[in-house]
Amino acid sequence: MLPTEEKLDPRVKRTRGLILQSFGDLLAEKSFDAISVQDVAEKAQINRATFYAHFEDKYALLDHSIRQGFMQEIENRMLNACHYTPDNLRTLIITVCEFLAQLGTDCAQSQRQFEPLVEKQVKLQVYELLTLWLSKMNVNISTEIPATVAAWAIYGLASYWSHSKKRPALEKFVDQALPLVSVNLEQFAQVA
Amino acid sequence: MLPTEEKLDPRVKRTRGLILQSFGDLLAEKSFDAISVQDVAEKAQINRATFYAHFEDKYALLDHSIRQGFMQEIENRMLNACHYTPDNLRTLIITVCEFLAQLGTDCAQSQRQFEPLVEKQVKLQVYELLTLWLSKMNVNISTEIPATVAAWAIYGLASYWSHSKKRPALEKFVDQALPLVSVNLEQFAQVA
DNA sequence: TTGGATAAACAACAACTGTTGTAAAATTTA
DNA sequence: TAAATTTTACAACAGTTGTTGTTTATCCAA
């Protein structure tokens, strides 16, 4: 993965910042599928070959961008410093729902490549967080399968909610959704 | 979607058959990401512009191919003529696991575009099948959320199993997996 | 301060994509 | 059977991608 930012050559830092900023600006203007590497390089005012020195292709750029953006949401809510409780699980479900709503993912044809990549990164991070939480619970049970099921269920629910035409209130939706996820994690719940 | 095959111009039928056959042959030779529309057209011995008359791009071709392939597996097991029971659910989970294993999906870099598309189509079909099953159960509960959670959980489990380095025996794995899915569908189980 | 190392710019290349208008071939319809 | 319609082939076009070797600019370390 990328080296820590503290040890970066300032030119690398500046160029990556330009790329990510331009990419974000372009995403606000048009759909991901309509954006070309050429577009990003031009907006960032760098050479196209320089883009390829930093990112393999535009999909790698999106992966990085989404991962960073979702990580920020997790850190803002200090979810990465938590352990498993139903309340934390509830907050996590809300976070994913809000993140997808804010991205404006929809089924538009022009978004065909965008959503699967968002999904992959967010699911992975949710899985990693759940695994971190569950492994703190001092329960001698493998976390892999429960964390997998919970992560996929959370994303599936969030995707369903963000795609709903008449979107129910998020709090109410999460009231319905939470039991379907927590039921498989009860064995990790701390005895109070 | 495509009109029924009975009413097709024979040239369309022939051309589509050539495209799908050639695509299947190419998938046996190299990864999806390495296959170009040019490759498929050459192997099918059709003009590249004719390819575009039938499929929007190679992703649409893959969507179609996967949907058809998985549909065949469902029909072979007559799962589309069933209603919800834990045994049928078990068979469905096994079907998805075997389908993914047979496709040889892995995390190879060269498969980056393949797996998300497979996932999307298979999840959708699993969701549609579950919705069909649950709606036959004469239970006055909305099927949408339970079917969503179950479909995503099934695919997540199958993906996890097919990616496992030391893959456990499928029967044993499904023994572990089934309760995590069925727990959310118990309200639809028929009172015997 | 200077030399070495690294990052970025540049031009060029081959390949592929997606599209278009025209022509030929094949099928359908009357 | 012949005309109409549809499908496919074709060539051409503009655009983008991914890569490469060379040059220039910038940073780091001694």
Index terms:
192 residues; mainly alpha; Arc Repressor Mutant, subunit A; 2 domains; globular; homodimer; Tetracycline Repressor, domain 2
Report on the architecture of this protein.
2 copies of one chain form a homodimer. By secondary structure, chain A is mostly helical. Chain A folds into 2 domains: 5-55, Homeodomain-like (Arc Repressor Mutant, subunit A, Orthogonal Bundle); 60-188, Tetracycline Repressor, domain 2. In chain A, 66% of the residues lie in helices and 0% in strands. In chain A, helix 5 (86-103) packs across helix 7, helix 5 crosses helix 8 and helix 7 runs antiparallel to helix 8 (170-182). The longest helix of chain A has 22 residues, at 114-135. Chain A is globular. The termini of chain A are far apart. The interface between A and B is medium-sized, with 25 and 25 residues.
Q: What would CATH call the class of the largest domain in chain A?
A: Mainly Alpha
| CATH fold label of the largest domain in chain A | Tetracycline Repressor, domain 2
Gyration radius of chain A (Cα, Å) is 19 Å
User: What string, H for helix and E for strand, traces the elements of chain A in order?
Assistant: HHHHHHHH
Most extensive protein-chain contact, per-chain counts: A-B, 25 and 25 residues
Write down the overall geometry of chain A. Answer: globular
Strand fraction of chain A = under 5%
- Identify low-pLDDT runs of chain A: none
Number of helices of chain A: 8
Distance between the termini of chain A: 39 Å
Average pLDDT over all residues of chain A: 91
